[in-house]
Amino acid sequence: MDRADYAAYIAAFNRRDLPGFTKFYAPDICFLLGGRMELTGRQAIIEWYEHAWARIEEHCLVRRIIMDDTGIAAELETSFRTIADWPDFTGGPLRTGDVLRRIGFIHYDLGPEGFTRVATAPHRVLEQPAHWIARS
After folding, report:
1. Rounded to 5 degrees, what are φ and ψ at 100?
2. Which residues contact 22 (CB under 8 A, 6 or more apart)?
């Protein structure tokens, strides 16, 4: 995997191209979503994103990546626009029309068949739904 491959992976993700971005995953990948959810296997990730993308539009902007032969560390700015209510979203309840923008860190472990583990961690919220602010 090189920077061009990673750029192709992010571009496929931003196009909502499930086969295009999940081809970078090993079949038995472990995907850890911010310490709140763990998905095992490529098919589980596909099903989760099918569910998620029926509720949100998501776009990632790569702010920084560090790579070596064993993995990638990335800082991403991710924007979510809610298109259908999602009361049990991993970050907090979302209502149609909500916008969430945040910076997060993602670590990818590399194996011969692609990413073997992806672990995400939120870092900083740039914009959040007004009802989140009201409840804190």
Report:
1. -130, 125
2. 42, 45, 46
d(CA 55, CA 27): 26
For residues 87 and 61, give the distance between their C-alpha atoms in angstroms, rounded to a whole number: 25
Q: Share the mean pLDDT of the chain.
A: 95
Q: What is the mean pLDDT of residues 26-47?
A: 94
How do residues 48-100 score in pLDDT, each as one tens digit?
999 999 999 999 999 999 999 999 999 999 999 999 999 999 888 999 999 99
Q: Are 37 and 125 in contact (CB under 8 A)?
A: no
Distances (CA, A) of 134 to 56, 128, 130: 22, 11, 6
Q: Do 70 and 110 form a contact (C-beta atoms < 8 A)?
A: yes
Q: Where are the beta strands (DSSP E) in the chain?
A: 25-33, 37-40, 56-67, 71-82, 99-111, 114-127
Q: What share of the chain is helix, strand, coil (3-state, %, to 5)?
A: 25, 50, 25
Strands 25-33 and 114-127 come out as parallel
pTM of the model: 0.92
